[in-house]
Amino acid sequence: MDIVKLSYQVMGIGNWTEVHVSGDVAKALVKEYKSYGWPVKLLAHETEHTDLHIVNG
Q: Phi/psi at 49 (nearest 5 deg)?
């Protein structure tokens, strides 16, 4: 299973909130949060690999 770190800033104000969720959940949250106009960042890595890469969501 892919686990990703999702960061978002509610209403674009204040501190970023960071959560670790599955890739499928992250995709749904990115879509939802972007529909609100919130900034979203996604840092993804596969549990089988140690490489991290940035995913522009």
A: -125, 155
pTM (predicted TM-score): 0.72
CA dist list (Å): 13 to 2, 10, 16, 34:
29, 6, 8, 14
* Proportion of the chain above pLDDT 90, given as a percent: 67
Here the tokens at position 48 are 């089988």
Burial class of 3 by CB neighbour count within 10 A (0 to 12, 13 to 18, 19+)? middle
Query: Which pLDDT value is given to residue 54?
Result: 46
Q: Which residues pair with 5 in a beta bridge?
A: 20, 43
